[in-house]
Every structure is written in structure tokens, then in C-alpha cells.
Amino acid sequence: MDGCRSCRKQHQPMPRIVVQLYTYQACRALAHLHASAVVHRDIKPQNLLVDASRGHLLKLCDFGSAARLSQGRPALVAYICSRYYRAPELIFGATNYSTAVDLWSMGCVLAEMLRGRPLFPGENGVDQLVEIVKVLGSPSRRQVLAMNPQYFSFAFPTVAACNWSTVFRKTVGPEFTTLLSEFLQYDPETRIKPLEACAHSCFDALRDERARCSDGQPLPPDLFNLTQRELRTCSASLHDRLVPAWHAARCPGSPPQPQAAG
């Protein structure tokens, strides 16, 4: 993502509306992928490309590490994803992970946009885990087993989680940190799903009909047009939370399909 690379160099966070816009679009891209059981496995700022001349339209790129999850598939590799954005279950050597690894990475990218620098800058795999524990605190035994059942005898020293106010500037509101907390869960199954993330109150500003980009451009026109793949995992109630009434009235479409089982 061009803007994120620039902010990383300058150690300056992005404008609020830009962070919301980029995160929302990245979650939409993940929702589309995950609905087809495809895991990207390398979500990072460099793989999120933005066209600033088109309302900061974001595209997910570089699918060289992507994999389709299916029954009977060969074991996945644990040594995958750029280190700063690597989910803890990968650090623990799990090979039966899910699309939730992308959601952890998304949380890391969100934090980087808010801070202007990476949240977990580990120098190697072990140091990466140390950086995570320093912020989130020690995982419980149940959380360790959720990440990798093979670590049933592994124990962590007790480390308390940091308050987000010590990690981010005072201008970063709770709407961002609550969403971030839902991405950065040790237990992969408890991480917020992509479309649920899009419905989070953090993005309510984007659902305002008068919303504009920080440079005055209108928002991307397809921001609330869900794809057929996204609709497979979107209940009617979630659809109502995602799509503002003014957009639904202006662009009537097919009703959402029932939420897929499982």
C-alpha cells in the first residue's frame, strides 16, 4: 500500500478516514476470498495497492502464497507470511490453520496504519512471539492449545496485557482499538470474520451518505456492493448492518442469501 509505505518511512499515522477506508476494503477482499475457502497467507501493507486518483480504491495483490483449504488437502506449511504480520499459530508451527491467519495479519496492518510503524517488529520467530506477548499478554493454556494442540505441555511466564492507550496516540479512538482487539485474538476461532468487521461501528463514518475522502474525493462507488461470494456468508441481519439504507434505496439488488452453515 503506497500510503502505508510512506507513513512507515516518516513514522506518521494515516488520516482517520483513510485508515477506515483501507481497512474496510481489505476486509471486503478477504471476505470474498474466504467465502471460497482461499487463504491469502501474506497480508501486509506492500500487498495492498491503492489508486489514490480513484477515491483511494484498494486492491489486494500477490497471491503467490495463497492456498485453497479443502478436505484431503496436504498439510500446509507453517513457515509462511511476512514475520511482522505472522499469526501466532504459525509461529507455534501449526499446519492445520484456517483463513483466520489472514485476520491476524489484517489486525497488524490496521495497527501499523494507526501507529505509522509495525506493532510487532520481531527480529526472528521467537522474538516475534515475545513482541506479541509484550502487548497482548501471555496466552492461556486454552489459547495455546487452540493455536496448536501439540503444545499441550508448553507454559508461558505470566505477562499482563498492555493498555492500548500506551501503544497508540491519544487521538486513536476506542472504535479502532475495539476492532483491533477482535482481530488480534490468540484463539483463531474467536477472531472477527471479515464481513462482521466491515459491520463494526469503526466504519459507521463510511456509511454516512455525505462521507468523503480526506482529499475531498467521493468514496469508491462499489463500497457497499457485495459480491455473490460475499453474500454466501452474509445473513439478512448482517446485510442490513453493512449496507446503509440510502445506498440500498439508490442501488436495489438481490436480497442476501441465507448464511452458510458452518
TrEMBL record:
Keywords: ATP-binding, Kinase, Nucleotide-binding, Serine/threonine-protein kinase, Transferase. This is Protein kinase domain-containing protein. Transmembrane segments: none annotated. It comes from the Eukaryota. Pfam families: Pkinase. Belongs to the protein kinase superfamily. CMGC Ser/Thr protein kinase family. GSK-3 subfamily. Signal peptide: none annotated. The keyword Kinase applies. It comes from Cladocopium goreaui. Residues 1-203 form the Protein kinase domain. One of its GO terms (cellular component) is nucleus.
